[in-house]
Amino acid sequence: MRIDFKINNRLVSFELEGETQVGGNEILLLEDENLIDQTDWSDVGFTIAPFLSLEEYESIRKGIKQLIIQKIDEAGGKTDDEFTLENYHLYVNDEKHLDVAKRIQFGWDVCQFPIPIQRVNDRISSFLNQAVTTKAKHIDLNNFFVRIVRPSNLKDNNPPHRDVWLDRLRDAVNLYVPLCGSNEHSSLGVVAGSHLLQESSIERTAQGAILNGTTYTVPSVISIMGEIPMLERPNPGENEMLLFSPYLVHGGGYNFNTDMTRISLEMRFWRKEDEK
Fold this sequence. Notes:
5-stranded mixed sheet; 17% helix; alpha+beta
């Protein structure tokens, strides 16, 4: 069957394989920990704010560039002095990119983060008015992630979804920080206020999605309130962060740029154990 999304009013269509379903009348966020409940943006579900110092941000960019170069090398690719994060797509073909994507799928332990991870934990904690950490309390996870989305390619990012349809990702808050190529044509999409919708309001795939023959781990949203999903791009700028609830419908960050790879830092935070 064909399914449609709109992101910033641009229509994107896919062929879907598999069954779809709707949930019950529960609102998942009301059953779980709501880490944005002490903010003035709790109703919309996301916000944009300054991230760290410009020096720290540049250190993160440089460090992640080196991590990506390492993964390209491990995949059998080559880089040179002209390599940048923005022109990543010029250095990998589909096969090499798929190899790199698999190698970074589960992220890196925070011990490899380019600056002390406590600086990020402290920044997010102060912004949420409660202590949070990248260290999950329910699973063995203390990682940071990088998303690489090549230009004019609809396979490199997830379709619209809620993270919390995967139980291990509940009770958290999400961070998106653009490192390159993120603008009004490529940044992450969200559906404002959707974190407060009943499960019965959203039709989704029963399991992970298969769109245009590509398999995704997360279930894909099919419709919201009987209508096609309409996403907006909040579009944080350099050294800004998009902080959002994982209960929010988000994704669909298709890169409609023709000459820039979009790379973003993505992290999740949970309440610190001693805060309960």
